[in-house]
C-alpha cells in the first residue's frame, strides 16, 4: 500500500521503505479443543535451540469480545486469552499488535503461548487484543487518530468490565510492537495507565508516508487528499483494492521489509492477510495510519522523551531487529543507551520479529519478565 500510495501523491516517486506497516501470518498449532500441549514455532526456527523448557503444561485459550464505548457507540473488540490451566496467583501481560493494514492478534499468539507455558518464579496470563478497526474487531467509520487509539488502550486497561480486570494481581506488563508500543508509552507518561513494565518490540512513531516525504504543508495537503479518497464510499474501495487489497501488493510488502527472510512468506500467509483486507470498513484505519494520523509524536526528540519521562518509574525493554528498514532502524537505534530504556536487545527480523521469529522474541521477553519479577534479595545478616 505504501509504495503505491507514494506514487499516488508524488510526481517523482522515491524509493520507499515503509516504516511501520506489518503483516501477521497465522502459525498453526497442535490443538485439542482449547488445550495446547506443544509450543508452536515458526518453521524458520530450530526449536531444539530456542528454549530450555522441555515439558509444557496444558494451556487454555479463550476468545471473546469486549464492548468499547466511544462517542456514544459500543464497538466490539476482539481479544484472546492464554493461561496455564489451574494456575493461581498469575500476573498479567497485555499484548497489542503492531498497527498496520492487516494488524491482528495472530502476530502475538505463538509468543503468548510460549511465555505462558514456561517455568519460572512467576506464572503469566497473556491477553492479546485487536485494535478497533483492525483484526477481528469491529471497523466503524470513525475519525481515527492517535488520540482515539490512546483512548481505547486507556479504557481497556482501566474499565471495570475489561478482560484484564479479573486478575488476582493487578500488576500489568504491556508488550507492543511498532506504533502500539509508542501509544502505550504516551498513555503511561500521562498517567492514564499504570503498567508495571513495558516491552517495546521494533517501536515506531512515524507513518509510512511522513517518514519518507516529511510533514510540509504541501505534503500534509496531499496526505489529506489521499486519506479522504480512501475513506470515500465508492472510489475509496476502488483505490483500496488497487493499493492494498491484492495479494501481489501484500506479498511485495512482506518480502521487502516486513519479514527478514522472504522464504518465510508463504502463500498461506498471504491469503490469510488478504482476507483481512476484504472486511467491511477495512480501509479506514489504514487510511489514517498511512498518512500519519496515528503517529503519537512527530519528531525523534519527542519519541526519546516518551522513554525519558518514565525513567526510574517502570522498567522498559526495547527489542530492536537486525533487518529493519533503514529509516525505522535509525529511530530504534537511537534508543540504545537512551534515558528511560532499562534494557536494549537485538533479534533477527525486520518489522515483525514476534511473528517471524517468535521463539527468539519470547526468550527475550521471558528473561525481561523474570528479571522484573524476581523477589528482592534477603539482606538480613
From TrEMBL:
The record ties this protein, via Pfam families, to: Abhydrolase_6 (PF12697)
Which stretches are transmembrane?
none
In terms of superkingdom, the source organism counts as Eukaryota
Looking at the record, the residues that make up the AB hydrolase-1 domain are: 124-363
Q: Name one GO cellular component term.
A: chloroplast
Residues in a coiled coil are: none
PANTHER family this protein is in? ALPHA/BETA-HYDROLASES SUPERFAMILY PROTEIN, ALPHA_BETA-HYDROLASES SUPERFAMILY PROTEIN
Q: What is this protein called?
A: AB hydrolase-1 domain-containing protein
* Species of provenance: Dendrobium nobile
Amino acid at each position: 500500500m505504501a509504495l503505491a500510495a507514494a506514487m499516488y501523491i508524488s510526481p517523482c516517486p522515491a524509493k520507499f521503505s515503509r516504516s511501520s506497516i506489518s503483516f501477521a501470518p497465522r502459525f498453526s498449532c497442535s490443538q485439542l479443543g482449547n488445550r495446547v500441549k506443544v509450543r508452536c514455532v515458526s518453521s524458520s526456527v530450530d526449536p531444539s535451540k530456542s528454549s530450555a523448557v522441555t515439558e509444557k503444561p496444558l494451556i487454555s485459550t479463550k476468545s471473546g469480545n469486549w464492548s468499547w464505548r466511544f462517542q456514544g457507540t459500543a464497538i466490539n473488540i476482539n481479544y484472546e486469552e492464554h493461561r496455564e490451566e489451574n494456575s493461581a496467583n498469575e500476573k498479567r501481560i497485555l499484548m497489542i499488535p503492531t498497527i498496520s493494514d492487516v494488524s491482528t492478534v495472530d502476530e502475538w499468539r505463538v509468543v503468548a503461548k510460549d511465555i505462558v507455558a514456561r517455568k519460572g518464579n512467576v506464572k503469566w496470563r497473556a491477553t492479546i487484543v485487536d485494535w478497533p478497526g483492525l483484526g477481528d474487531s469491529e471497523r466503524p467509520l470513525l475519525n481515527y487518530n492517535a488520540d482515539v487509539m490512546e483512548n481505547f488502550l486507556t479504557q481497556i486497561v482501566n474499565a471495570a468490565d475489561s478482560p484484564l480486570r479479573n486478575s488476582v494481581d493487578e500488576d500489568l506488563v504491556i508488550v507492543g510492537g511498532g506504533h502500539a508500543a509508542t501509544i502505550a508509552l504516551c498513555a503511561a507518561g500521562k498517567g492514564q495507565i499504570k503498567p508495571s513494565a513495558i516491552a517495546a518490540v521494533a517501536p515506531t512513531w512515524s507513518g509510512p508516508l511522513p517518514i519518507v516525504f516529511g510533514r510540509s504543508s504541501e505534503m500534509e495537503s496531499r496526505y489529506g487528499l489521499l486519506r479522504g479518497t480512501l475513506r470515500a464510499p465508492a472510489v475509496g474501495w476502488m483505490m483500496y483494492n488497487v493499493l492494498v487489497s491484492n495479494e501481489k501488493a501484500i506479498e511485495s510488502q512482506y518480502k521487502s521489509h516486513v519479514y527478514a527472510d522472504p522464504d518465510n512468506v508463504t502463500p498461506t500467509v498471504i491469503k490469510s492477510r488478504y482476507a483481512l483486507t476484504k472486511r467491511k470498513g477495512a480501509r479506514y484505519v489504514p487510511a489514517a495510519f498511512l498518512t500519519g494520523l496515528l503517529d503519537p509524536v512527530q519528531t525523534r526528540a519527542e519519541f526519546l522523551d516518551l522513554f525519558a519521562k518514565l525513567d526510574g518509574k517502570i522498567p522498559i525493554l526495547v527489542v530492536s531487529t537486525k533487518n529493519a528498514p533503514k529509516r525505522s532502524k535509525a529511530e530504534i537505534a537511537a534508543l540504545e543507551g537512551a534515558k528511560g530504556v532499562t534494557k536494549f536487545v537485538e533479534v533477527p527480523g525486520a518489522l515483525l520479529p514476534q511473528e517471524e521469529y517468535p521463539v527468539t522474541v519470547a526468550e527475550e521477553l521471558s528473561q525481561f519478565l523474570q528479571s522484573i519479577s524476581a523477589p528482592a534479595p534477603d539482606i538480613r545478616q
